[in-house]
Amino acid sequence: MGCGSCGTGTPNGCKSNGGCSTGGCNRLNVHDWLMNLPFSDPESNCKIVEVSFKQGSRKEFFRNTTLQYFEKGDYITLEGLSGFDVGEISLTGELVRIQMKKKGVDEFSTEIKKILRRSTDRDLESFNISKSREKEILARSRAISRTLNLQMKLSEVEVQADGKKAIFFYTADDRVDFRELIKIFATDFKFKVEMRQIGIRQEAGKVGGIGSCGRELCCSTWLTDFKSVNTTAARYQNLSINQSKLSGQCGRLKCCLNYELDTYLDALQHFPDNADTLDTIMGTAHLIKKDIFKNLMWYILPNNNKHYPLTIQRVKEIKRINQQGQRVDELQAIEIISKQKEAEPAFVELVGQISLKTLEKDDRRRRDQQRSGPQSPNRNDQRSNDQRSNDRRPDDRRPDDRRPDNRGPQQNRPIQKRPPQRPPQRPPQAPNNDEKS
Fold first, then answer.
1. What pLDDT, on the 0 to 100 scale, is given for residue 126?
2. Which helix (H) or strand (E) holds 391?
3. How far is residue 261 CA from its own chain's centroid?
4. Cα–Cα distance between 390 and 384 in angstroms, integer?
5. Mind listing the pLDDT tens digit for each residue in 140-157?
6. Disulfide: which of 27, 80, 89, 215 matches 56 by Cβ 3.0-4.6 Å?
7. Strand pairing of 283-291 and 307-311?
8. How many CB atoms lie within 10 A of CB 333?
């Protein structure tokens, strides 16, 4: 919601000094999809704007009697109780009329307050001073209510920009007599006090939080119409009645239980009524579950823990036979084919299949240099060049002259040439007498 450093007054995203034109810093926003569309008659444009207080915690409508044009995110100075107040514009244009119709506010009512001017630096300074007192006032007011033993919970305090009035929002189960409390507040804080009772769900929307689904609470983002939720909605959706799982942050049943209730009710119209029990020879089968996705009804027999899934047609057939005073021999449950689990690919060891000859040669060369000791760089360069040429040259040496690569310091010794071998001479033979004759 909004920019990362809105608390400093200078957001990193919009750079508008705290007034985000997109309205992302507020709660319960309405997207103005008519903002960039031209109007043929500008005079018929709605002169009322929606203003939010305390980051969307409270919204009211004000009439724009000035000739100035205000955009979403602008801070304006408004009429207050014997003073002025500062708010942020959250919606303008034709969508304001739709919001007023939704909330039952008359556009031409005389009770709608007016906009005085665009907020000045002095107005904003007074506004910031009043807002900085709210935490201290809330802590002090809670301590006072505990001393008076009042069965109420103060959830939020909103101080007017000029500091002449404050609204205290509280929750209570029963009626509370807070006349003495208001006298103490007026004496200690020196302003006019207004007490407003809100519900548990409204309090959760003001506080905010993250739901079990992992998203921000609906009541603090878009939900404004709170409807009653009971456990019947959970039973229609085949949910287990677990209070800890079905309860929201407010302690009541989750509002999202009503979101899909109409879809379940439409799907359950195809299922037969009064089919909670079926008479069979083995006993009375009781209905335990309805599966609207597979159009199946699950039954269980007495003294048996096995579940029998039946189709809707089979249940209607059994019910028709039972109405004739007969019992069926068997339920004829269908066979549910479970989805086969895909085999996970086995882990393949690739380390042994990778050949790192280049790294091994460099490693071997480095070890050879460490063993042979420090040498001149020219000699090392010459030896490396010779070795590269030998690697590129075909191996035409005899098998006896070949040496392993890790021969150690003998690699740097000069190669001694062998003297050429002479062929063996034959011993002189004695002359043959026959040849002589």
1. 93
2. helix 377-392
3. 24
4. 10
5. 999 999 999 999 999 999
6. 27
7. unpaired
8. 16
227: which 2 tokens? 């409807």
Rounded Cα distance, 364 and 358, in Å: 10
CA–CA separation, 23 vs 2, rounded Å? Answer: 8
Neighbours of 7 (CB within 10 A): 9
Residue 23 has pLDDT above 90, yes or no: no
Output the pLDDT for position 296.
92
- Strand ranges of the sheet holding 165-171, from the earlier edge strand across to the other edge: 153-159, 165-171, 192-197
State phi, psi for 203 to the nearest 5 degrees: -65, -40
Query: Do the beta carbons of residue 85 and residue 185 sit within 8 Å?
Result: no
Q: Which residue has the tokens 């957001």?
A: 11
Cα end-to-end distance, the chain, whole Å:
131
Under DSSP, is residue 166 helix (H, G, I), strand (E, B) or coil? strand
Helix, strand, coil fractions of the chain, as percent rounded to 5: 30, 20, 50
Query: Hey, what are 254's tokens?
Result: 């989750």
109-132: burial string, b at 16+ Cβ within 10 Å, e else:
eeebeebbeebeeebbebbeebee
* Tokens standing for residue 154: 């103060």
Per DSSP, 118 falls in state: E
- The residue assigned the tokens 């007490």 is 195
Token pair of 319, please? 């019910």
Short-list 270, 235, 227, 275, CA closest to 252: 227
Strands 165-171 and 192-197: parallel
pTM above 0.70, yes or no: no
